[in-house]
Structure formats: structure tokens, C-alpha cells
Design a protein that fits this description.
- There is one protein chain.
- This protein is 26% helix and 25% strand.
- It folds into two domains: 78 residues; 126 residues, Immunoglobulin-like, CATH 2.60.40.1240.
- α1 packs antiparallel against α2, α1 packs parallel to α3 and α2 packs antiparallel against α3.
- It has a five-stranded mixed β-sheet. A four-stranded antiparallel β-sheet has the order 4-5-8-13, with no helix packed on it. Strands 1-2 form a two-stranded parallel ribbon.
- The protein is built from five helices and 15 strands.
- It is an alpha+beta fold and 275 residues long.
């Protein structure tokens, strides 16, 4: 039986590393492609990204860096840098594609082909000046409806109503047929008139909608709603009614005309001039 030779003290057996020996650990290096990808990705989201070159570089180097880091068995690092570079570059490329598409569509829609002289005047003889086409005449505005104008005391017509204004008085108050007295904010202008229904149906003469006073400055003053004699009164065809229309105007107002219109017939207004 063979005996192994004795070992010296402190000498390790054959096949084992000597005492105190260790294998050095090599630290992983940062991938240069990952660094380039991150720098190019950051540049892509700045105005430099419109140069198109940084996003392409960032996307390509980022993809290559990820492949090499995965196959380096831990000798290369920089996965996060490569991912960020790839994402930023890809986002910048997507924005550039969308903006470019919008610009292309806008340019296509806005493109116009200038007309040549021959297209504008195909019958023109070569060498002769082309006369410009005459401008179209502007349409004349339709004449405004004037309606009838009469003096106070004369009968006039608007729609189905024949109206005669017999007088206008200034009053500080007005007492109706029910002995109810109303007071104005300024002063009352009381218009005495006679109205006759010339239509074929019974109709109410709505003084609030039908009667307007025009002052010397051209301002319009509407009749009062609950003051006066014409209040929800139907007048049969051929019949007439006489009463007051009360208008509250500022004190000292000078009345120049009474305008009366049939609100149910959309007729032209009747204007009664005031002396």
C-alpha cells in the first residue's frame, strides 16, 4: 500500500491554492453605449431633438447597450441608463413623426396653384393687355317700410286698426274709471284716441304693445300696462272705442310723434305727428 509523502507544515495539499491566496473580483464596467444613449436621450427632449440625429443615436445605442449588458455575464452595467436613453429617444421620435405629419397635411391643404393669364382670360389675344374683370355691383338695400303718416286729428290705418289721435295732455297723476289714482315717476303723457276694428274678427287693442311716444331726441317711450282705458278689451269688427293711453315719461319731455302698430298683423307702423 502506497503512502503519500508527508507534507511540510503550512503547505496545503496538492490541488488546493496556497494559504492566503484569493481570486480577485473584477468590478463591472459601465457600458459606454449606455452612457451615449442616456446623453442622446436627454438631448432629444431639448430643442436639439428637432435635429432628428440625437433621437436616432439614443435609440440605436440604447438597444445595443441592453443586448451587450445582458450577454456580459455581469461584466457590464448601465441597464437603467440604457433604458432611459431608449425611452427618451423613442418619445422624441414619436413627437417628431406626429408634428411632421400635421405639417405635411397642412402644407398639402394650403397649397394653391396660381392661375395663369390664359386661365383668367382664355379669349385674350397674345400680346394684347388683359382687361380686369368688372367688379360685381353691390346689391341695393331693400327700401325700409315707411308706413302711413298723418297729423293729429286725422285718421290713419295700421293693420286691421283705423286710429285717430285727438289730443295729448301732460298730467301729474291719472285716475281711471274705477277711481284708482296712479302717480308717475316723471310725468304722464295722456294720449286721447279713437280706434276702430277694420278686420273680420274681434280683437283686443293692446295699448302697451301698440302705442309708443317718440320724443324730440328720438327716444321711444312705451305705454303703461295697467294705466289707461284700453285694458283687455275686445273690439268687434266694425266697432270703435275711445279712450286714453297713458305713458310715463321724464318731466319736461317734448313729444314729437305717436307711433301706433298692429302687433297681431306685423303691419307697418302708423305715425301721428304732434304739433
Amino acid at each position: 500500500m502506497n503512502q503519500q509523502p508527508p507534507y511540510e507544515v503550512g503547505t496545503p495539499p496538492t490541488g488546493f491554492p496556497p494559504q492566503g491566496y484569493y481570486q480577485p473580483v473584477v468590478p463591472a464596467e459601465t457600458s459606454g453605449l449606455a452612457t451615449v444613449s442616456l446623453v442622446a436621450g436627454i438631448a432629444s427632449v431639448t430643442p436639439l431633438g428637432f435635429l432628428v440625429f440625437p433621437p436616432i443615436v439614443g435609440a440605436v445605442t440604447g438597444a445595443l447597450a441592453l443586448v451587450r449588458i445582458r450577454g456580459s455575464a455581469g461584466h457590464l452595467k448601465g441597464t437603467t441608463m440604457a433604458l432611459w436613453g431608449t425611452v427618451l429617444s423613442g418619445f422624441s421620435l414619436l413627437v417628431l413623426l406626429v408634428v411632421g405629419g400635421f405639417l405635411a397635411v397642412a402644407a398639402d391643404q394650403g397649397a394653391t396653384v396660381p392661375e395663369t393669364v390664359a386661365e383668367q382670360a382664355p379669349d385674350a389675344v397674345e400680346g394684347e393687355p388683359v382687361e380686369p374683370a368688372p367688379e360685381p355691383a353691390e346689391p341695393e338695400p331693400a327700401p325700409e317700410a315707411q308706413g302711413e303718416t298723418v297729423a293729429m286729428g286725422e285718421a290713419g290705418t295700421t293693420g286691421d286698426w283705423e286710429v285717430t289721435v285727438t289730443g295729448i295732455e301732460t298730467q301729474a297723476s291719472y285716475t281711471d274709471e274705477f277711481d284708482f289714482t296712479e302717480y308717475p315717476q316723471g310725468e304722464f303723457q295722456v294720449v286721447q284716441m279713437e280706434v276702430s276694428n277694420q278686420g273680420t274678427e274681434a280683437t283686443m287693442f293692446d295699448a302697451e304693445e301698440a302705442v309708443t311716444l317718440i320724443d324730440a331726441d328720438g327716444n321711444s317711450h312705451a305705454a303703461s300696462f295697467l294705466v289707461g282705458d284700453f285694458f283687455y278689451t275686445d273690439i268687434n269688427p266694425g266697432n270703435s272705442a275711445t279712450g286714453d293711453v297713458v305713458v310715463d315719461v321724464p318731466a319736461g319731455t317734448e313729444i314729437s310723434a305717436v307711433e301706433i302698430v298692429d302687433p297681431w298683423d306685423f303691419a307697418d307702423p302708423l305715425t301721428v305727428t304732434v304739433n
